[in-house]
Amino acid sequence: MPELSRRRALGAAALAAGTAGAQLLAAPAASADGHHDHHSPASFDEVYKGRRIQGRPVSGGGHHHGDGYAVFVDGVELHVMRNADGTWISVVSHYDPVATPRAAARAAVDELQGAPLLPFPAN
User: Fold this and answer.
1) CA nearest neighbour of 105 among 88, 121, 122
2) Using a CB cutoff of 8 Å and minimum separation of 24, what contacts does 48-53 make?
3) DSSP state of 100
4) Is the Cα torsion angle 27, 31, 32, 33 positive or negative in sign?
5) Per-position DSSP letters for 14-70, written without gaps between them
6) Is 8 exposed, middle or buried (CB count within 10 Å of its CB: 0-12, 13-18, 19+)?
7) The pTM is what?
């Protein structure tokens, strides 16, 4: 059996530390009580690739259940949803979770490729 050298031991320790660090970076934020941090992101209003995207926290109304977050592309609401892991998806880019509602709006603009966003029918 090969002898464990100092170089191998340090290399293994560095690899283990790097792996643990990467897992911490990839893990969603958690509060002191162990629950995910679900506070509403800040509002935004910008022009992205020639399209006006906006987002803001909302309370009730529309198809939001309780407190939620509304995102708009050129004044038309983009239906967004927060996943249990803290990521966000939209009706346009449903299978590509992103970190923020702003990123979801930008991903929708990218996916639309200049096409208008059509209103999402409320139930």
Assistant:
1) 88
2) 48/105, 48/106, 48/109, 49/109, 49/110, 51/109, 51/112, 53/102, 53/105, 53/106, 53/109
3) S
4) negative
5) HHHHHHHHHHHHHSPPB-TTS-B--PPPPPEEEEETTEEEEEEEEESSTT--SEEEE
6) exposed
7) 0.65
Contact of 45 with 54, CB cutoff 8 Å = yes
74-104: per-residue pLDDT in tens? 999 999 999 999 999 999 988 999 999 999 9
- Give CA–CA dist 35/100, Å, rounded: 18
Angstrom distance (rounded) from CA 41 to CA 119 = 23
What is d(CA 50, CA 89) in angstroms, rounded to the nearest whole number?
A: 22
Q: Which one-letter amino acid corresponds to residue 89? A: I
Q: What percent of the chain has pLDDT over 70?
A: 61
Q: Which residue has the tokens 């629950």?
A: 35
- Give CA separation, 46 vs 54, 72, 77, 101, in Å: 7, 11, 15, 13
